[in-house]
């Protein structure tokens, strides 16, 4: 028995003692070939579209979206399959992607994205991972079919020619402009801009004194009482307020803004005649003369509407004010320059007036990855730095700023 145990031990620990070198080399080679073939077979099996849509999460959520796009059905009959876009073609990158995908498989197994609701909730995270990967590799998988050097720009529409020629000159990643080309874009409400953490930190340490003017670092709810129990509206980021008094964890502030004298007059704007939203009151209190005082009224010559200069005081939590609005604009300016220049050269802030910017920006922001809070700050930045507040002239074809700056 001892000899048998020793023989088995030597067979595993000292194989050359029991087995000839030629047999060992041959056996090792065969084992290696079999292992490689098994690995390659498994790799190929997981690279098939049938494998990708075999789980209900992909089959029920992503396949129906893909089937509605030109990547599934088109006049040439050339179709992109799941691995064409989501599996790198180079071997080392492919192996790395397979390892990364293990967490997605785990998420499916434990039910993290097991229902439509859960999938939609986590979709922003999944999308951002892919966007980051495409941005890092220059959208290599896209360009296996859509390479700049093979494009005939003259056959494109004029607007597309400009964008694509500029993108080709910068060797730009496709996903910068073409998010949502094969699948629906995720809801951005779950996303947030970490740059706002700096504003929150500054506001929490800001020393506030009664009688001084400050600016909102983040949007806040307005209350009628110092106990912060009776909501009366909300105030937007960057809106100016004058601090009247401070009690405990609450502070009473004064709002001095403008509103249109129509309906409830709930929306309050920062300047006469300009649709730059600074606060919104609940309709139950918007016409309450005990809360809202009308200081002046005048007609807007551009629209014929009556505008009222109004003031009101309200309570809000402490720790939401900063003494300069510039940090807010710094974040907005960086977001505008980085997000709105990937597809084309973004317009100068003073190229349009404050009332034109909302429509233009609303048409562009959907092509960016801005979250809702960032988008609101960027729009306000553009409006407050528009031609209405600029002393410089526009370029050819731009709106005439003198119509706006001439407002009384």
Automatic annotation (TrEMBL):
GO molecular function terms attached to this record: electron transfer activity; heme binding; iron ion binding
Segments of this protein annotated with the region Disordered: 388-408
PTM annotation, UniProt: Binds 5 heme groups per subunit.
Transmembrane segments: 21-39
Residues the entry annotates as binding heme 2: 82, 85-86
Binding site for heme 3: 142, 145-146
Amino-acid positions noted as binding heme 1 in the UniProt annotation, renumbered to this chain: 52, 55-56
Membrane topology, as annotated: Single-pass type II membrane protein
UniProt keyword annotation of Membrane present: yes
Binding site for heme 5: 340, 343-344
Keyword Disulfide bond attached: no
Residues engaged in binding heme 4: 174, 177-178
Subcellular location: Cell inner membrane
Record GO biological process: anaerobic respiration
Entry GO CC: Gram-negative-bacterium-type cell wall; plasma membrane
Keyword terms of this UniProt record: Cell inner membrane, Cell membrane, Electron transport, Heme, Iron, Membrane, Metal-binding, Transmembrane, Transmembrane helix, Transport
InterPro entries attached to this UniProt entry: Cytochrome_c-type_ET, Membr-bd_4haem_cyt_TorC, Multihaem_cyt_sf, NapC/NirT_cyt_c_N, NapC/NirT_cytc_sf
All copies of domain NapC/NirT cytochrome c N-terminal, residue ranges: 15-188
Pfam families linked to this entry: Cytochrom_NNT (PF03264)
Family, as annotated: Belongs to the TorC/TorY family. Belongs to the NapC/NirT/NrfH family.
Listed name of the protein: Cytochrome c-type protein
Organism: Thauera phenolivorans
């Amino acid at each position: 028995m001892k000899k048998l145990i020793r023989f088995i031990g030597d067979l595993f620990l000292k194989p050359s003692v029991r087995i000839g070198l030629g047999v060992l080399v041959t056996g090792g080679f065969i084992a290696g070939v079999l292992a490689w073939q098994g690995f390659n077979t498994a790799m190929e099996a997981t690279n098939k579209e049938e494998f990708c849509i075999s789980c209900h999460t992909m089959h029920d959520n992503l396949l129906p979206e893909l089937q509605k796009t030109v990547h599934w059905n088109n006049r040439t009959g050339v179709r992109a399959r799941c691995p064409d876009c989501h599996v790198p073609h180079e071997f080392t990158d492919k192996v790395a992607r397979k390892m990364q995908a293990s967490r997605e498989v785990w998420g499916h197994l434990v039910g993290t994205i097991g229902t439509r609701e859960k999938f939609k909730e986590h979709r922003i995270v999944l999308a951002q991972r892919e966007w980051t990967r495409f941005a890092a590799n220059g959208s290599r998988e896209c360009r296996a079919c859509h390479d700049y050097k093979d494009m005939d720009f003259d056959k494109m529409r004029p607007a597309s020619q400009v964008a694509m020629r500029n993108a080709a000159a910068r060797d730009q990643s496709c996903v910068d402009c073409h998010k949502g080309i094969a699948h629906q874009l995720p809801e951005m409400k779950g996303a947030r801009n970490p740059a706002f953490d700096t504003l929150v930190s500054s506001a929490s340490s800001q020393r506030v004194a009664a009688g001084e003017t400050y600016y909102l670092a983040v949007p806040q709810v307005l209350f009628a009482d110092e106990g912060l129990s009776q909501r009366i509206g909300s105030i937007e980021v960057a809106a100016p307020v004058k601090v009247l008094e401070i009690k405990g964890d609450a502070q009473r502030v004064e709002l001095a803004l403008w509103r249109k004298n129509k309906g409830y007059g709930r929306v309050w704007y920062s300047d006469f005649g300009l649709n730059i939203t600074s606060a919104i009151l609940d309709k139950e209190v918007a016409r309450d003369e005990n809360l809202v005082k009308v200081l002046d009224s005048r007609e807007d010559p551009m629209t014929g509407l009556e505008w009222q200069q109004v003031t009101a005081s309200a309570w809000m939590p402490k720790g939401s004010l900063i003494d300069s609005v510039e940090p807010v604009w710094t974040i907005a300016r960086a977001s505008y320059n980085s997000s709105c220049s990937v597809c084309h050269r973004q317009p100068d802030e003073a190229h349009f007036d404050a009332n034109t910017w909302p429509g233009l920006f609303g048409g562009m922001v959907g092509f960016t990855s801005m979250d809702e809070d960032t988008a609101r700050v960027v729009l306000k930045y553009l409006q407050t730095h528009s031609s209405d507040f600029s002393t410089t002239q526009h370029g050819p074809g731009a709106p005439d700023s003198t119509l706006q700056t001439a407002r009384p």
